């Protein structure tokens, strides 16, 4: 082989297409088995996940039924414990009733208190357990009614048992020499004996219902488990019928296709070898053409150098032209800056608020200078009223009277002015060609119709303060439009300041009027309080003013009657402290002060001295509030002379 042929072989080996080389060995054949393997893996994992999910659901269902069953069993056990405790309480009450020895009675009393406490704890646990079942979604109206009935039956028994222990403790404390109410012990025992069967009956019904609900709950969960297991069996059956047979069939099809592809690859390889020999011949011809192209390329490079030099000269000329253009642009910017500075300084001085100047006169002065300055035709300045959420006209320039009446008040979103106030975006319309006839103005010789309209929002701190509407006979110059936009924030700030000053003046006037009314009201209240104080001092009854059950005020008669020095000693004391300890129980338990009638009882002074009193409670309005007032009257003289009080007995 010649050297030229060797170089051609090297070039060909470096440039053979990859798709031809990839079929040279079986290891480099396309991975045709990837598709069936991937399908098999995806279906297998999907079936495995579904099966695992079903087993997880079954597991949690089993845990759920066991938890609920445990709660039902706990409720039934609590009901049984309540039955036992109620019977033990009755037993202890009967033993306590017949006891004679003090030590034995005290021991039985401790046992009874322990049983009562356990009975209350078990009742609370029963109610809390039922509430947990309700929170978990358990609903049974009949069971809820039984729980409420059980609570109603439970309270009287506990109250009566506590009364028995309290009476027995008083009896033991006084060494059986005094019993506050001889019949109270018998009444309480009879009350427990009467209520106990109803309570046991309600406990029995509760236990029966809890057992029934537990059985129904187990039946439902078994049904759900059967359903889940059925789905699991169906999934396994579908795997056997529809997962493995299609995959096996696809694998066979892919293997047949691979054999056909291998045969066609051999044929194509033979054709490629023949084409390779032909390409060698073409490569020799191409090498000769490359020599000719090299020569042509050298000529092109020489021409490119000449073009590069010419392009560099053009760039230098363009640079000089750009420098001249930049100088002109800078001059224009300086001229515009001088214009804006002069205009802003002029109008800043004009917009400065002067003494005794109103918002209307301020706006009139502004429009009188601004409209001619920007070659405007007409203008209206609106101010935003936050209380009415609308715009009102503050000033106008060269505007017809009919148009002023029509645009005196503008709501947010109405027309161009309302829309600009709502969106805070300016609107500029030009080339109207006489279509804005409603804005035309009249001169002495002719009518002038505007050709451009600009509506600008006047803002302060990104909030609407007003709107400026202006027309022009011809299109406004861009520098005037830019000037108006720059001035909008300054005008808005001045408008906001003027409105704030107006509101402050109004608020000051309102506050002066309100202060006068408040002063009159305070004088009237003080007069009423002084009159009430004098009336309470004249009466012979002691008076207590309560907040809840605590003393908040009183009169000097009661302070003197109870032996105290000042009212501070009685503040925030319970009113029951005015009653002798022996009689406090009947005042509280019998709620004697809630019927509004007077009752006789025994009071106690600061030094511990007791004396007969007559007490009465009522609701009255005091200092604009409804408070409880208790009147206490000393009836010592009445009790000293029985003839004058015949027929009156202490309650």
Question: Which secondary structure elements does this structure contain, and how are they paired or packed?
Answer:
Layout: H1 3-15, H2 18-21, H3 34-98, H4 102-135, H5 141-173, H6 182-351, H7 359-373, E1 378-385, E2 390-397, H8 401-406, E3 409-411, H9 415-423, E4 427-430, E5 441-442, E6 447-448, E7 452-460, E8 463-472, H10 478-538, E9 542-547, E10 550-554, H11 556-561, H12 581-589, E11 599-604, E12 610-622, E13 625-634, H13 636-640
Antiparallel strand pairs: 1-2, 1-8, 2-3, 4-7, 5-6, 7-8, 9-10, 9-13, 11-12, 12-13
Helix-strand topology string = HHHHHHHEEHEHEEEEEHEEHHEEEH
Classified by CATH, the class of the largest domain is Mainly Alpha
Count every beta strand, where a strand is a DSSP E run of 2 or more residues: 13
Number of spatially distinct domains:
3
Q: Order of strands across the widest beta sheet?
A: 3-2-1-8-7-4
* CATH topology descriptor of the largest domain: Four Helix Bundle (Hemerythrin (Met), subunit A)
Low-confidence stretches: 1-30, 643-651
Radius of gyration from the CA trace? 53 Å
Overall, the morphology is flat
Helix content: 55-70%
Structural class designation: alpha+beta
Discrete helix count:
13
C-alpha end-to-end distance: 143 Å
State the major sheet: 6 strands, antiparallel
Known CATH architecture of the largest domain: Up-down Bundle
What is the oligomeric state here?
A: single chain
Q: Beta-strand level of the residues, as a percent range?
A: 5-15%
């Amino acid at each position: 082989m010649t050297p030229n042929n060797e170089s051609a072989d090297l070039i060909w080996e470096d440039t053979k297409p990859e798709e031809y080389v990839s079929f040279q060995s079986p290891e480099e054949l396309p991975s045709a088995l990837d598709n069936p393997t991937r399908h098999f893996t995806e279906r297998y994992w999907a079936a495995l996940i579904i099966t695992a999910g079903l087993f997880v659901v079954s597991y949690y269902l089993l845990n759920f039924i066991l938890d609920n069953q445990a709660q039902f069993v706990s409720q039934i056990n609590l009901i049984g414990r309540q039955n036992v405790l109620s019977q033990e309480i009755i037993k202890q009450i009967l033993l306590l009733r017949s006891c004679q020895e003090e030590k034995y009675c005290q021991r039985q009393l401790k046992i009874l208190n322990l049983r009562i406490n356990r009975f209350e704890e078990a009742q609370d646990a029963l109610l809390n357990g039922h509430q947990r079942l309700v929170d978990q979604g358990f609903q049974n109206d009949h069971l809820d009614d039984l729980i409420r009935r059980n609570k109603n039956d439970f309270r009287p028994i506990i109250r009566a048992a506590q009364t028995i222990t309290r009476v027995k403790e008083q009896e033991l404390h006084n060494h059986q020499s005094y019993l506050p109410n001889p019949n109270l012990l018998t009444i309480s025992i009879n009350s427990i004996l009467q209520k106990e069967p109803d309570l046991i009956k309600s406990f029995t019904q509760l236990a029966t219902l809890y057992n029934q609900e537990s059985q129904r709950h187990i039946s439902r969960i078994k049904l759900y488990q059967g359903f889940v297991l059925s789905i699991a069996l169906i999934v396994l059956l579908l795997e056997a019928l529809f997962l493995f047979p299609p995959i096996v069939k696809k694998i066979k099809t892919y293997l047949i296709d691979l054999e056909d592809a291998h045969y066609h690859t051999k044929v194509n390889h033979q054709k490629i070898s023949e084409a390779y020999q032909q390409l060698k011949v073409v490569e020799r011809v191409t090498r000769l053409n490359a020599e000719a192209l090299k020569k042509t390329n050298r000529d092109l490079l020489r021409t490119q150098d000449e073009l590069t030099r010419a392009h560099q000269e053009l760039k230098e000329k363009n640079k000089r032209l750009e420098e001249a253009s930049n100088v002109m642009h800078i001059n224009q910017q300086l001229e515009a800056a001088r214009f804006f500075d002069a205009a802003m300084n002029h109008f800043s001085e004009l917009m400065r608020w002067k003494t005794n100047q109103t918002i209307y006169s301020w706006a009139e002065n502004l429009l009188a200078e601004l409209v001619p300055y920007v070659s405007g035709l007409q203008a209206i300045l609106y101010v935003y009223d936050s209380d009415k959420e609308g715009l009102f006209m503050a000033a106008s320039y060269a505007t017809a009277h009919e148009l002023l009446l029509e645009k005196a008040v503008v709501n947010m979103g109405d027309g161009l002015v309302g829309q600009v106030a709502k969106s805070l975006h300016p609107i500029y319309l030009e080339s109207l060609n006489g279509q804005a006839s409603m804005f035309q103005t009249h001169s002495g010789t002719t009518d002038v119709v505007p050709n451009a309209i600009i509506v600008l929002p006047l803002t302060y701190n990104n909030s609407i303060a007003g709107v400026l509407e202006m027309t022009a006979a011809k299109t406004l110059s861009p520098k005037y439009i830019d000037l108006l936009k720059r001035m909008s924030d300054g005008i808005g700030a001045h408008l906001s300041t003027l409105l704030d000053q107006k509101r402050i003046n109004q608020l000051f006037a309102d506050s002066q009027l309100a202060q006068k009314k408040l002063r009159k009201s305070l004088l009237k209240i003080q007069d009423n309080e002084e009159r009430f104080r004098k009336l309470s001092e004249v009466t012979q009854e002691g008076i207590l003013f309560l907040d809840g059950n605590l003393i908040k005020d009183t009169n000097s008669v009661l302070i003197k009657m109870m032996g105290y020095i000042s009212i501070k000693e009685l503040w925030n004391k319970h009113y029951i402290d005015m009653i002798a300890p022996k009689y406090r129980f009947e005042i509280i338990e019998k709620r004697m002060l809630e019927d509004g009638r007077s009752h006789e009882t025994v009071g106690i002074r600061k030094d511990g001295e007791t004396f007969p009193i007559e007490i009465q409670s009522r609701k009255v309005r005091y200092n604009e509030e409804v408070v409880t007032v208790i009147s206490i009257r000393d009836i010592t003289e009445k009790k000293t002379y029985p003839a004058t009080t015949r027929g009156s007995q202490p309650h």
